[in-house]
Amino acid sequence: MDDLDRFCCLNPDCDRYGRRGAGNIAVRARYGDGGRRLLYCKACKKRFSERKGTPLFACRLDDDKARSVLAHLQEGCGVRQTGRLLGVHRDTVLRLGRLAGDHARAAHDGLVSFSPLDDQDPTG
Q1: DSSP per-residue string spanning 58-85
Q2: Is the dihedral of CA 106, 108, 109, 110 positive or negative?
Q3: pTM of the model
Q4: Which helix (H) or strand (E) holds 20?
Q5: 75: Cβ–Cβ under 8 A, 6 or more apart, which residues?
Q6: Residue 23: partners with Cβ closer than 8 Å, 6 or more residues away
Q7: 79-108 tens-digit pLDDT
Q8: Domain limits of the chain?
Q9: Contact 31, 50 (CB under 8 A)
């Protein structure tokens, strides 16, 4: 099953920029040890990684190990402890945690900026 409907074109000059499920995304090739997909926009002819725009972009860890690092941090494990448990350098743990936090902040800010205003006073 191909999940290409969850991807969108990342080229701001494209007519289909940011539109998911528009039918313009295809798999162009696979690269890396994990067989990551190089995606292709049929409308603007630009290529980009399936990880572009995520905290895992340019991460050399395999998907399972990177997710494990983030899961350990989410559960409150320390940076050094996470590194020891997963066999990853503490700087890698710090970098992934910082990137995931920055990504979450940007997603939150984007969602909040489009939230409808509530005219009712919550205190009654």
Answers
A1: T--S-HHHHHHHHHHHHTT--HHHHHHH
A2: positive
A3: 0.68
A4: none
A5: none
A6: 42
A7: 999 999 999 999 999 999 999 998 888 888
A8: 1-52, 54-115
A9: no
